[in-house]
Amino acid sequence: MRDLPAGHDGRRWVANAATLVWGDEEAVLVDTFPTTDRNERLIDWIRDHGRRLVAVYITHGHGAHAPGRYTIRDATE
Fold this sequence. Notes:
Blueprint: E1 19-22, E2 26-30, H1 36-48, E3 52-57, H2 66-76
Parallel strand pairs: 2-3
Antiparallel strand pairs: 1-2
Helix pairs in contact: 1-2
């Protein structure tokens, strides 16, 4: 079983909410992770692999994406 948050078995969720699409030089992020730690790890990966983040798309208004949006913005400006 994957490492899922505790809760009712029928109502467990996966905290993976971001998708990174990258090419040779640039990357696009679709949504952000709900935690600062996960977003910082994503930023490190982008930098370590020599990609430049050119866009972040937030697909829906869930509040879980708001903190990540600012973490990503501050790290890539």
